[in-house]
Amino acid sequence: MGKVILHSAVTVNAAYEAPTPEEWLELDNESRDASQDQLMLADAMLLGRKTYEGLAALWPTLGEVPGMERFADRINSMPKYVASRTLSAPLTWNATLLEGDLTESVTKVKESSTLWVSGCGEFAQALAQRGLIDEYWFGVHPHLWPAGPRFFDGFGPLRLELVSATQYKSGVITLCYRPANG
Predict the structure, then answer these.
(1) What region holds the Bacterial bifunctional deaminase-reductase C-terminal domain (predicted)?
(2) Which residues have a Cβ under 8 Å from the Cβ of 52 and sit 6 or more positions away?
(3) For 97-131, how does the pLDDT look when each residue is reduced to its tens digit (9 = 90+)?
(4) How far apart are CA 28 and CA 25, in angstroms?
(5) What is the domain count for the chain?
(6) Is residue 145 within 8 Å of 13, Cβ to Cβ?
(7) Is 32 helix (H, G, I), strand (E, B) or coil?
(8) Strand pairing of 173-179 and 135-141?
């Protein structure tokens, strides 16, 4: 049996969209390598429509960016499962559209795959509300942003238990949680 791992980069005050691209991601070699190692644990990606469309437009070109080759090779080659009420099959970028009820379709894929969820908006909330997320991995970056969407705004309560915390030279802290109810 696989699991669903939600992975998100956030600021100290839980913002997940940078005011400008230059203000995002404080990765040193150690934290970058750890993020890549975490990605290697997954068999496939699980995405909502908005994240799928954004990543599919960007990642196929990132293999040419120095330092991004390993990430890009892994992400581009992974199977992707996309939940959407508006897209229709077939999808590009090695992606399959999930059909029917979200809980049933994710549970079925999870039977044979560990799924990596990227993004923390509406889709992540839908998964959390249905109890489908087994682990929450937050890369907390040393920034405070005055505006923008916050992770899980309006969602809860959900009690989490800390599994691990790792601090990196860049100031990034990776926190791994599981739902406290098992």
Answers:
(1) 3-173
(2) 80, 82, 84, 87, 91, 93, 95
(3) 999 999 999 999 999 999 999 877 889 999 999 99
(4) 9
(5) 1
(6) yes
(7) helix
(8) antiparallel
Residue with tokens 């077939």: 90
Hey, is 103 helix, strand or coil? Answer: helix
Q: Tokens for 13?
A: 């005050």
Q: Tokens for 94?
A: 């090695």
Q: How far apart are CA 137 and CA 126, in angstroms?
A: 17
Sequence-distant (6+) residues with CB within 8 A of 105 are 81, 83, 98, 99
How far, CA to CA in Å, does 97 sit from each of 44, 49, 54, 82? Answer: 13, 10, 16, 5
Q: Give the predicted TM-score (pTM) of the model.
A: 0.90
d(Cα 6, Cα 124) in Å, to the nearest integer? Answer: 8
In sequence order, the 6+-apart residues with CB closer than 8 A to the CB of 109 are 2, 44, 46, 81, 98, 115
Q: Residue 110: which domain range? A: 4-179
Cis peptide before 21 (omega within 30 of 0): no
pLDDT in tens, 45-98: 999 999 999 999 999 998 888 877 888 899 999 999 999 999 999 999 999 999
CA dist 106 and 1 (Å) reads: 12
